[in-house]
DNA sequence: CAATTTTATGCTAACGATTGCACAACAAAT
DNA sequence: ATTTGTTGTGCAATCGTTAGCATAAAATTG
């Protein structure tokens, strides 16, 4: 910048102001400087700017296990929407397992303006660091930890809705395959489902699960398929589309028709589950809106003013596929 | 840091040296400072350090469309391996389509030490920016552009290997479903395949494709299924696992047995293709090694010394699944 | 014990931007 | 003609850290 100023015959401060459209710089000088900057390919050093300005323009991103396409889709939204707001993402973690200390420290070292945790697992280390250092924190797709705001889908309602629809369509022996029993997402979805089943006076649903993976869903599907036909459930909820896909794969491999003999439904609305051969009936998370709200929450807390933690819950959208027998009133439309 | 120095009764430079284990600081002073820093929760500001040191510790990451699980898997490796080297990732793009100018500019503004482009599409804008500003650039899974090094799988050999195996197993009417015709990855894989088919004196393979997506593979599969049985190919290569999955889904939906009536093979080795119901026979890209080499290449160019651009090609690993009829010598073992 | 080397620390100037304040130039008002 | 107001620039301090050089204290040597 110094050399640019020398070349333009002005002071460095004038260059700085000209490039940021400070109204106090006369138009002709500004134009000359902008043209010159363009010519020599000058780009301001954001690191230096952050030093004086206080804000780095960086948002820390902690991603869940990306073998679940849901997180990949979430990431894509995060990148796009953050960019639209002029923020950049510092990708500090992606995958299963806890975040390493050295990695979490990077959040502080790079002075991120905020942090986005999109993982159903408890990434307590990153959350703790944010809390201890007043870094605004928003969690997506999970309830808030001790500190931080959260945006998630109404998981309980999603589970309940699917139960209601399956029951209305005449299913009587229901089952649910859960994910990780320590994640709120999995628990709430299963709870909502089971609550409605009980409310309908139907027998207690069969329960499987333990991990949010295709393999675990597949395993559960195999167990279900191996049951004698009269004991077999006639509808199964996989608490995530990934699990539901596994269930469906196992059932079909065992020669059981879906939805002919057993209905399968999932929750998340990932692209992979919507296409053939699954065409999953599922409750889609409103990803676009969720990310929008998440960034709004961050933004409101980024300029230093303290705000109470906030929890936003959005309703999911029912996606009618062909993996479950549904009430006629729905499939007709 | 200034307040820390005051609290410890030393100069700021001493604190700086103590925290970075400068041998010139006496052990007792160092221990006292480290303990104090720990206590007050002090974390050095990397932005400021970069300002004087010249290196930001950031690597720009440009990701391809993450609806292809291959890119998600690649990203996971990038995060893990970069962290192991003490680098952080600045995620500037993820998805299809070109990278925006403002986004690409961020690479310069944040003074990334290097850039990783993992997209088969030509992200010419990011590449151009890197070239114009001497930012080390490594492309993964595609050939080098005008500027930059590259790491990729031996795509031609992968296509050729699969062709040879299918032919050896007795297939006679082959087909190939390509991806984006502008990506080297797709072209090379198809070329290697076709070359071997011709060399074997077999009829010219049927060709489909145009986009690297499940939908396009599905579409091709439907067309193939609709052919009168005698004209139908008996083996199909999807140039990516994603495409191959689409093909398989369409064939099975049409009631055609895979691999009973038609063998299907893919290339990439993504997790989704290896599990049921696909159990794809494919050539897996050695992701771990590819990323390792990519970061090596970046590292060698990051300390300022100029090095000639380099292209590294790694051989893929044959994964024997159950989606294709293979020579007995392989399936027996 | 003086002279010399070693060791540990402090001082200060960078790094590349931003910003409050001072100031020069010029126009308008008294 | 002096004062007041406006407008556009420059100066210098600042952000948090590192690194070269100077220096004081301690340890070694003759």
From TrEMBL, chains A, B:
Keywords: DNA-binding, Repressor, Transcription, Transcription regulation. The keyword Cytoplasm does not apply. PROSITE patterns: HTH_LACI_2. InterPro entries: HTH_LacI, LacI/GalR-like_sensor, Lambda_DNA-bd_dom_sf, Peripla_BP_I. GO terms for molecular function: DNA-binding transcription factor activity; transcription cis-regulatory region binding. SUPFAM superfamilies: lambda repressor-like DNA-binding domains (SSF47413), Periplasmic binding protein-like I (SSF53822). Residues 1-53 form the HTH lacI-type domain. This is LacI family transcriptional regulator. It comes from Aquabacter spiritensis.
């Amino acid at each position: 910048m110094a050399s640019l100023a020398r070349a333009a015959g002005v002071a460095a401060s004038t260059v700085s102001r000209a490039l940021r459209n400070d109204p106090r710089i006369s138009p002709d000088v500004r134009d000359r400087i902008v043209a010159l900057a363009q010519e020599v390919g000058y780009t301001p050093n954001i690191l230096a700017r952050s030093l004086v300005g206080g804000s780095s323009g960086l948002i820390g991103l902690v991603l869940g296990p990306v073998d679940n396409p849901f997180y990949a889709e979430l990431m894509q939204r995060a990148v796009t929407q953050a960019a639209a707001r002029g923020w950049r993402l510092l990708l500090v973690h992606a995958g299963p397992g806890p975040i390493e200390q050295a990695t979490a420290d990077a959040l502080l070292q790079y002075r991120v303006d905020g942090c986005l945790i999109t993982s159903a697992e408890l990434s307590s280390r990153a959350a703790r660091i944010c809390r201890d250092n007043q870094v605004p924190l928003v969690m997506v797709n999970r309830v808030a930890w001790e500190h931080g705001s959260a945006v998630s889908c109404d998981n309980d309602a999603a589970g309940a809705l699917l139960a209601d629809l399956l029951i209305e369509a005449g299913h009587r022996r229901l089952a649910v395959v859960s994910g990780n029993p320590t994640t709120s997402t999995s628990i709430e979805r299963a709870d909502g489902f089971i609550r409605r089943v009980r409310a309908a006076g139907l027998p207690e649903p069969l329960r499987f699960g333990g991990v949010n993976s295709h393999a675990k869903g597949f395993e559960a599907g195999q167990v279900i398929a191996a049951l004698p036909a009269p004991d077999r459930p006639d509808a199964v909820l996989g608490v995530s589309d990934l699990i539901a896909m596994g269930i469906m794969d196992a059932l079909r491999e065992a020669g059981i028709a879906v939805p002919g003999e057993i209905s399968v439904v999932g929750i998340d609305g990932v692209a992979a589950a919507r296409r053939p051969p699954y065409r999953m009936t599922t409750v889609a998370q409103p990803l676009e809106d969720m990310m929008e709200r998440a960034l709004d929450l961050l933004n409101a807390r980024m300029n230093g003013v303290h705000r109470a933690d906030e929890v936003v819950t959005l309703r999911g959208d029912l996606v009618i596929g062909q993996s479950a027998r549904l009430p006629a009133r729905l499939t007709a439309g």
